[in-house]
Amino acid sequence: xxxxxxxxxxxxxxxxxxxxxxxxxxxxxxxxxxxxxxxxxxxxxxxxxxxxxxxxxxxxxxxxxxxxxxxxxxxxxxxxxxxxxxxxxxxxxxxxxxxxxxxxxxxxxxxxxxxxxxxxxxxxxxxxxx
Length: 130
Prior knowledge:
Distance between the termini: 15 Å
Structural class: mainly alpha
Shape: elongated
Number of helices: 4
Number of domains: 1
Strand content: under 5%
Largest sheet: none
Helix content: over 70%
Radius of gyration: 16 Å
């Protein structure tokens, strides 16, 4: 069972790392006004959003759906913060593309990222086992 947990954890972290890298690639392409490459990369990033959410759900259902108490509540908050982080990333990219202010998007991105990382690596069980 520990091997499955470790595999799921690595898969989830890998999708997040690739997703964050793609996010910054799309952001730089949009700032350089390279519309077609930005659009293609953005679509790949959206595919990774799906992978991120699916691997996160797989982790949650295999490890936290049956536990109770504060661990269950923290896992739900971490899951919601992960979805919030994906939404903030998408909001930033759409606003950059439209030429609007992204301050609130970046604020949400930073808050959600801090929440996800602190709960995922420090609070939830086996979070340090990367």
